[in-house]
Write a structure and sequence with these properties.
This protein is mainly α. The chain has 9 helices and 3 strands; from the N terminus they run H-H-H-H-H-H-H-H-E-E-H-E.
Length: 298
Amino acid sequence: MVKNPLSIYSALVANLLIALAKFIAGAYTNSSSMISEGIHSVVDTINELLLLYGLKRSKKPADRFKPFGYGRELYFWSFIVAILIFGLGGALSVYQGIIHIINPKPLENPVWNYIVLGFSVVCEGASLLIALKEFNILRGELPFWKAVVKSKDPSSFLVLFEDGAAVLGLFIVFIFMLCSHIFNKPALDGVASVLVGCLLIFVSLILARESRSLLMGEGISIETQKRLIQITEDDPAVIKVINVLSTYESPDEIVLMLIIRFKPNLHTAAITDAIERLKTRIKNQYALIKFIVIEPKN
């Protein structure tokens, strides 16, 4: 089921406040890494807005143009978010850092940067805790990475990864900014910007991979397929399930197609009754399976 977007709203508010503070501090102190962090926060803000838009679009009811509904809108916008993290967040941060390494500028009044970083850690940390709490509720007993791979709701882990990268990036900036200040090596500020950019690119590649897989179409698990075959073959009218085809149209909507060999002595009415019986039985056990197509095969 699509998660409550509480973590998205909390991340949106946090990133708006943080982006403004980072840009002001970066411009005032000539800090490349703070400007990069500001870019990062702006990108995250845009990402949250796109996720909210994708969630809203995905809830549109089916119509004649989209008979299975608009659930995949969420997958599409999640993929766009991953691309934005790569392009606007990662690549711009790397570029900004390289420019600062080539032409380093000494920090001016870095105390303001430390204040903004502390404020950012508090806001991003609170947002991360909210996202982590929601994700832990959804994943249950599953290991963390397995839950990410098995999840059909990209909004459940996109914000979590964004916030995690944001907190880690803040610590990277703090350490390198402190070293730059203590050892009078302004180029280290640019190095921090490059590292933050590389971190964002790495995260974006993970998110793009998962979002692309969902957008291209993922089916039900092997365990669920086996259970569906057992339910179907337990019906007295069925000889064998030949094939099981499925795809997630949204996090809470599955399209299922069963190709079945029925007993040869059944007339058309008996097969029709068996098909309706199987559809009812499957939907009663799997609420996410909204559409079922059963094709008899000789």
